[in-house]
């Protein structure tokens, strides 16, 4: 009989977003305080570092509880996103449900390294961190005038426990090879990680080797952006969409991605590549449709969906989806 992972939502703090920067036809004065959701994935296989328990993964870490731990440039940006609520953060949410983040988590996968997703990595001293290709280069050097290195902490992630997924493209920051003396502990050898087609998704990676947890290449928002697709039942997927969009009405096509002045006489969005971000969303829609045609449900959850959080409080850890 097949066994499936369990997924639980975690509070990772809240931030406030001015709608005019995110959705088309927005009220220019409206600001919405939204969650920065994180997720616990409990896989029934033995933990690679503590075989006496099951394997536990985290997707995204939300907001740091200590705002002063951000760089000055990050803090200036955060000042524009007030109110910011830092408690409970991801680690507190785990503790409140009976898990110790310092001992009970095997792997942390970050969708990307914007300030409201990196949380406090030091809370997970035994976990391996897995990120999209180019992430470590981005943290160290930034990427162009829209993403200067001052907007990132160069030492955000533990160098001796962080691995990057295989590279898929040459543009943007370059992939950092895993050092030979790494302390990262992976459930599948890194050399066996390969991108493959999974339905409408052109590039998906079987993270654990059993088809239950897939990393989905999800370009457009920030260099290295990835999503997670988890098989929670024979007829059920959960798709964790990170920042593919910041409002569920964009995914449903009730709204579009907002454009605004880039400070150099042009237009930009909150995505590094708006057209690519739109294509990523279309891929999600196609995957959902093709799975529904086969009688399989796909629940899509974006990181900042405040409506989903209000409607699903019982599905937060220690509850599950």
UniProtKB/TrEMBL annotation:
Keyword entries, A-Z: Hydrolase, Metal-binding, Zinc
Cofactors required: Zn(2+)
SMART domains: Lactamase_B
Coiled coil stretches, renumbered: none
UniProt-recorded Gene Ontology molecular function terms: hydrolase activity; metal ion binding
Keyword Cell division: no
CDD domains: metallo-hydrolase-like_MBL-fold
Top-level taxonomic group: Eukaryota
Keyword match Hydrolase: yes
Residue ranges occupied by any Metallo-beta-lactamase domain in the UniProt entry: 35-304
SUPFAM superfamilies registered for this protein in UniProt: Metallo-hydrolase/oxidoreductase
Record family assignment: Belongs to the metallo-beta-lactamase superfamily.
Annotated protein name in UniProt: Beta-lactamase-like protein
């Amino acid at each position: 009989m097949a066994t499936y992972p369990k997924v639980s939502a975690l509070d990772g703090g809240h931030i406030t977003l001015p709608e005019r920067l995110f959705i088309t036809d927005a009220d220019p004065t409206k600001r919405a305080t939204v969650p920065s959701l994180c997720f616990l994935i409990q896989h029934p296989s033995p933990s690679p570092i503590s075989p006496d328990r099951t394997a536990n993964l985290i997707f995204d870490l939300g907001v740091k509880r200590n705002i002063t731990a951000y760089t000055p440039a990050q803090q200036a940006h955060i000042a524009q996103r007030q109110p910011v609520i830092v408690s409970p953060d991801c680690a507190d949410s785990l503790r409140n449900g009976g898990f110790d983040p310092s001992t009970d988590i095997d792997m942390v996968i970050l969708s990307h390294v914007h300030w409201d997703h990196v949380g406090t990595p030091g809370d997970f001293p035994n976990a391996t961190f897995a990120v999209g290709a180019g992430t470590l280069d981005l943290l160290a050097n930034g990427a162009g005038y829209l993403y200067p290195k001052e907007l990132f902490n160069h030492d955000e992630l533990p160098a001796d426990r962080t691995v990057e997924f295989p590279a898929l493209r040459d543009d943007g920051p370059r992939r950092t090879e895993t050092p030979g003396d790494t302390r990262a502990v992976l459930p599948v050898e890194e050399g066996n990680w390969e991108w493959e087609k999974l339905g409408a998704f052109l590039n998906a990676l079987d993270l654990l080797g059993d088809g239950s947890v897939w990393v989905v290449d999800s370009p457009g928002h920030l260099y290295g952006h990835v999503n997670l697709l988890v098989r929670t039942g024979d007829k059920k997927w959960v798709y964790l969409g990170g920042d593919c969009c910041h409002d569920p009405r964009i995914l449903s096509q009730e709204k579009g991605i907002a454009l605004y002045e880039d400070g150099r006489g042009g237009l930009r969005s909150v995505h590094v590549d708006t057209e690519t971000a739109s294509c990523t969303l279309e891929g999600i829609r196609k995957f959902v449709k093709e799975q529904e045609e086969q009688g399989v449900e796909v629940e899509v959850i974006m990181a900042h969906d405040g409506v989903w959080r209000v409607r699903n409080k019982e599905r937060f850890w220690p509850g599950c989806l």
